[in-house]
């Protein structure tokens, strides 16, 4: 089967919260540097980097044998033969998803929430790859 990559859907409010809070931290870091408070500036810069490295980019790749969920430097590899449920969800639980219009994927004793922009197409595409 063809490898297909889905980006994350982004809810406007969540994009604004993440963008504004990260931008606010960056501005405060610059102000701290200008004031000579290098320790505070370093902490804030590290905070901004941590947010960016964990949250961007976020996407979902349907490969030949597994689903790969990427959120920044974090990768989840979910073999198709371990998936036993793929259902729409609106859960607020923390996950590699930038929208509350989500898909819950249960595999083994775990689950993961993703938010592809074309939820129904993603569900159909993923289900078609399951054994």
Notes on the protein architecture:
The structure is a single chain. With 131 residues, this protein is of the alpha+beta class. The chain has two domains: 4-10 and 57-129, Pleckstrin-homology domain (PH domain)/Phosphotyrosine-binding domain (PTB) (PH-domain like, Roll), CATH 2.30.29.30; 12-54. 40% of the residues lie in helices and 30% in strands. The protein is built from three helices and seven strands. The strands form two sheets. A four-stranded antiparallel β-sheet has the order 1-2-3-4. A hairpin with a 2-residue loop joins strand 6 and strand 7 (110-114). Helix 1 packs antiparallel against helix 2 (38-55).
List the helices and strands and how they pair.
Elements: E1 4-7, H1 12-35, H2 38-55, E2 58-62, E3 66-71, E4 74-79, E5 83-89, E6 102-107, E7 110-114, H3 119-129
Helix pairs in contact: 1-2
Structural class: alpha+beta
Percent helix range: 40-55%
Provide the CATH superfamily of the largest domain: Pleckstrin-homology domain (PH domain)/Phosphotyrosine-binding domain (PTB)
What is the CATH third-level topology name of the largest domain? Answer: PH-domain like
Mean of all residue-level pLDDT scores: 97
As a whole number of angstroms, the C-alpha radius of gyration is 18 Å
Number of domains in the coordinates? 2
Total strands: the figure is 7
User: What overall form do the CA principal axes indicate?
Assistant: elongated
| Biggest sheet, spatial arrangement of strands | 1-2-3-4
H-E string: EHHEEEEEEH
The profile of the biggest β sheet is: 4 strands, antiparallel
Beta fraction of the residues? 25-35%
CATH architecture type of the largest domain: Roll
Number of helices: 3
Distance between the termini: 13 Å
CATH class of the largest domain: Mainly Beta
């Amino acid at each position: 089967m063809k490898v297909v990559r889905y980006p994350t859907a982004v809810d406007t409010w969540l994009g604004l919260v993440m963008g504004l809070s990260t931008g606010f931290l960056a501005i405060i870091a610059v102000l701290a540097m200008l004031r000579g408070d290098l320790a505070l500036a370093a902490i804030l810069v590290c905070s901004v980097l941590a947010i960016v490295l964990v949250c961007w980019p976020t996407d979902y790749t349907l490969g030949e044998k597994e689903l790969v969920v990427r959120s920044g430097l974090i990768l989840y590899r979910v073999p198709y033969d371990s998936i036993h449920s793929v259902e729409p969800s609106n859960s607020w639980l923390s996950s590699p998803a930038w929208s509350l219009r989500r898909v819950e994927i249960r595999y083994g004793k775990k689950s993961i929430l993703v938010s592809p922009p074309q939820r129904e197409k993603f569900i159909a595409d993923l289900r078609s790859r399951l054994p």
